[in-house]
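Appendix C: a fully annotated inverse folding record. The material below is reproduced so that readers can follow the format used throughout the book. The structure is listed first as tokens, followed by the designed sequence.
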């Protein structure tokens, strides 16, 4: 058994195909198949079930893959750790970011990273929180910017900022007459939400005191992005909650929409940078967190309730 064979196994599990895995590993398919067969014989269990040209991981394989991934990650960490001691910022840093932050925060961050940390190459992955936290915990991502509790042990959080929520309504809406809007002022039946899986959806339901209702009393339309939510509101389908960064810069609201600050208890979300507590890139991650905190627009920071 060796790390090379474990990498072959992980490639097959990820791609679900021996041919594609062989190409990704830059070897021939017979060589890859032979090495995995030898590993299966050594372990005494089948790791994969061959179904035509596709592959499915067996129950035993699922357990073994978890250990294989940890072993490969630990080996990779040795190299990263050595490089980090030479220059903590050097090399690529794999960073996840949620979709309700990426388009609005990254334009502020990327130019500063390029100017202040030219030796660091940010490799961005934009996805939902539930699909970013496990790769951070497994070492497939170095860090991720999220706006909710990761609820996974072994992760470290670097606070970035608190981001207030705003209520966005058509200009002729009753709520547009108010300087601030309380969550209790919002009719749950008119609240436009993102699709399931977005943490912003759950936060909007919590703020409006409707976490248990889910889809039952919400406007019968769901969007995949903040921009789509705004266009739905502009078309008269309801009102929505938007985090402050989405309203800054040169982004103008579509139609005749207006934004009003959300008042009341905890009308914001806490944005944090998560990483493994044992990550050899901790210094680079801490530097990135400090850079983000130092380049925020007005209105973002620490909010005391």
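Designed amino acids, in order:
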């Amino acid at each position: 058994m060796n790390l090379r064979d474990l990498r072959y196994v992980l490639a097959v599990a990820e791609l679900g195909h021996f041919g594609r895995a062989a190409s990704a590993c830059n070897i021939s398919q017979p060589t890859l198949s032979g090495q995995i067969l030898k590993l299966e014989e050594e372990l005494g269990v089948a790791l994969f079930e061959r179904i035509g040209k596709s592959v499915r991981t067996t129950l035993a394989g699922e357990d073994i893959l978890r250990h294989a991934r940890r072993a490969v990650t630990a080996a990779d960490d040795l190299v990263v750790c050595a490089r980090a001691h030479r220059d903590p910022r050097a090399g690529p840093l794999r960073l996840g970011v949620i979709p309700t932050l990426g388009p609005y925060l990254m334009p502020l961050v990327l130019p500063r990273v390029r100017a202040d940390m030219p030796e660091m190459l940010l490799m961005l992955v934009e996805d939902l929180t539930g699909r970013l936290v496990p790769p951070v915990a497994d070492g497939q991502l170095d860090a991720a910017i999220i706006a909710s509790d990761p609820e996974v042990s072994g992760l470290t959080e670097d606070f970035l900022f608190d981001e207030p929520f705003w209520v966005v309504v058509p200009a002729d809406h009753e709520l547009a007459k108010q300087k601030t809007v309380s969550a209790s002022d919002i009719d749950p039946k008119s609240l436009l939400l993102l699709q399931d899986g977005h943490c912003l959806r759950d936060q909007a339901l919590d703020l409006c005191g409707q976490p248990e209702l889910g889809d039952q009393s919400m406007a019968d339309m769901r969007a995949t992005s903040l921009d789509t939510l705004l266009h739905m509101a502009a078309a008269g389908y309801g009102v929505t909650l938007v985090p402050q960064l989405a309203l800054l810069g040169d982004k103008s609201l579509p139609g005749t929409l207006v934004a009003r600050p959300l008042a009341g208890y905890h009308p914001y979300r806490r944005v944090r940078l998560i990483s493994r507590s044992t990550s050899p890139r901790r210094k680079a991650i801490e530097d990135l967190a400090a850079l983000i905190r130092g380049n925020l627009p007005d209105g973002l920071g620490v909010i005391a309730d």
